């Protein structure tokens, strides 16, 4: 086989490959052009949704201090927490709405007065503090005030702040989404009329759902963080509502 023939074969192969690449790029460009129109415009729309809060969440803690007898501290702490659980069950709070969020046993130390001394003895453990916390969800707001005061009478030392939320926002969000899309569609028609073109097919739809921070009332311990049950009447709790905004962006093809 001559050297000239080999060169000609290589040139022909190169041309075939180059032609195939050009054809592929052309076909791909056509498909992209058909799928994603080059002339498009976008409009947005938003709608507010407001839903009534139907779940209250708060945390109660039992803090027990004692000497070095850890078993006695645990027994005392457990009895108080069991009393709280029994009380909550009697008020209709289900087990699925209770979750232990903390169980911490910490030593307490005694420190020697080392002023003016060359050698200072190490701190000594004089006792332990056991803290057990329980996260609680209450779905019956009519009993919420009694529960907040009742857990203290059942042995809780502290009650953390109450926060409110909505169990299911699906229906309310769908209503707001429909309204937002209608606003965007109207804006698209008005834009096309002003720009002297027609609205083509919908190319894309994007939804952004920012959540507004919700300020929630607080019901907690004051002073040294320990509450006496006899000093707290049942509070009046106002759950309020939760507001969010549904934002959509629609992209349409421009038709001349």
The helicity comes to: 25-40%
Count of individual helical segments: 4
Low-confidence segments, given as residue ranges, are: 212-231
Biggest pleated-sheet summary: 5 strands, antiparallel
**Bulk shape:** elongated
Strand content: 25-35%
**What is the number of strand segments?**
8
The radius of gyration is: 34 Å
Order of helices and strands: HEEHEEHEEHEE
Structural class: alpha+beta
CA-CA gap between termini:
61 Å
Q: What's the rounded overall pLDDT mean?
A: 81
Summarize the structure.
By secondary structure, the chain is an alpha+beta fold. The protein has helices spanning 3-35, 70-90, 144-153, 170-195; strands at 40-52, 55-66, 98-110, 124-138, 158-159, 163-165, 198-208, 241-255. It is 35% helix and 33% strand.
Describe the secondary-structure layout:
Elements: H1 3-35, E1 40-52, E2 55-66, H2 70-90, E3 98-110, E4 124-138, H3 144-153, E5 158-159, E6 163-165, H4 170-195, E7 198-208, E8 241-255
Q: Would you give an account of this structure?
A:
By secondary structure, the chain is of the alpha+beta class. 35% of the residues lie in helices and 33% in strands. The chain has helices spanning 3-35, 70-90, 144-153, 170-195; strands at residues 40-52, 55-66, 98-110, 124-138, 158-159, 163-165, 198-208, 241-255. The strands form two sheets. Strands 2, 3, 4, 5 and 6 form a five-stranded antiparallel sheet that branches. A three-stranded antiparallel sheet has the order 1-8-7, covered by helices on one side. The chain is elongated. It starts with a helix and ends with a strand.
């Amino acid at each position: 086989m001559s050297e000239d023939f080999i060169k000609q074969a290589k040139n022909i192969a190169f041309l075939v490959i180059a032609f195939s690449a050009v054809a592929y790029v052309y076909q791909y460009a056509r498909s992209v052009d058909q799928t994603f129109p080059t002339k498009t415009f976008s409009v947005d729309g938003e709608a507010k949704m407001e839903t009534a809060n139907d779940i209250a969440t708060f945390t109660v803690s039992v803090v027990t201090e004692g000497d070095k007898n850890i078993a006695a501290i645990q027994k005392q702490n457990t009895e108080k927490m069991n009393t709280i659980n029994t009380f909550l069950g009697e008020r209709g709070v289900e087990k699925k709405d209770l979750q232990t969020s903390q169980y911490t046993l910490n030593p307490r130390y005694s420190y020697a007065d080392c002023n003016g001394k060359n050698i200072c003895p190490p701190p000594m453990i004089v006792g332990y503090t056991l803290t057990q916390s329980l996260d609680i969800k209450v779905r019956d707001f009519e009993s919420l005030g009694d529960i907040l005061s009742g857990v203290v009478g059942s042995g809780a030392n502290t009650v953390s702040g109450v926060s409110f939320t909505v169990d299911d926002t699906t229906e309310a969000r769908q209503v707001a989404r429909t309204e937002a899309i209608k606003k965007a569609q109207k804006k698209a028609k008005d834009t096309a009329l002003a720009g002297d073109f027609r609205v083509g097919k919908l190319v894309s739809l994007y939804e952004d759902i920012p959540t507004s921070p919700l300020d929630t009332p607080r019901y907690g311990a004051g002073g040294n963080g320990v509450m006496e049950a006899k000093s707290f009447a049942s509070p009046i709790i106002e759950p309020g509502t939760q507001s969010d905004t549904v934002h959509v962006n629609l992209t349409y093809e421009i038709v001349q």
